[in-house]
Amino acid sequence: MGQGQPGNSQAAASDLAVVFCEDFSAKHPGKFLTADTKTGPGGKPVTTIEVVDSGADIQSTFFDMWRQDHPDVSLNEVPGDYVTTSGSGLDPDITFENAQFQLARVVSARAKDSHRNPVQIRQAVEQILQKNAPAPLDGLAGEKFVNVLEVNLALDKIYGAPK
Fold first, then answer.
1. What is the DSSP letter of 5?
2. How far apart are CA 47 and CA 39, in angstroms?
3. DSSP state of 10
4. Rounded average pLDDT per 10-residue block, the chain, 163 residues
5. Of 11, 54, 88, 91, which sits most exposed with the smallest number of CB within 10 A?
6. For the chain, what are the domain ranges?
7. How far is residue 107's CA from residue 151's CA, in Å, rounded to a whole number?
8. pTM for the full model?
């Protein structure tokens, strides 16, 4: 019997997708499925499906879905690594552009926390960023990166650790 006919016991694909997603998310909270293609025997590509908790393909998929649902929302220009890095603290290097983008937020938080003048804190942060922003090959290639951990430790040394 075909779909839509009386007595049909086959579920529609969309119904199965809902059941699958609910079951998967219950068994693997915070995880996603992704396709991983590697070179297999004889040099042929082999694609496997893996359970992951992060990845650029996941981020871009969810952003694309959100953007399709919100096409008229004005987006601010932000450094690419601001939205694509993990934020886990395990990879503390960010682009200098990203550090500059976050400067006002960092200064505001440090000023509030330490009860100090935001202008002075901004000057200190800018000096620390300049000092701790190397570029590959002494600036001959690539863009500058900032080690967030080093910047925070330098700020802690000056203003004390945040509360």
1. S
2. 9
3. P
4. 57 82 87 81 85 73 82 80 60 83 91 91 92 75 82 90 80
5. 88
6. 9-75, 80-159
7. 12
8. 0.50
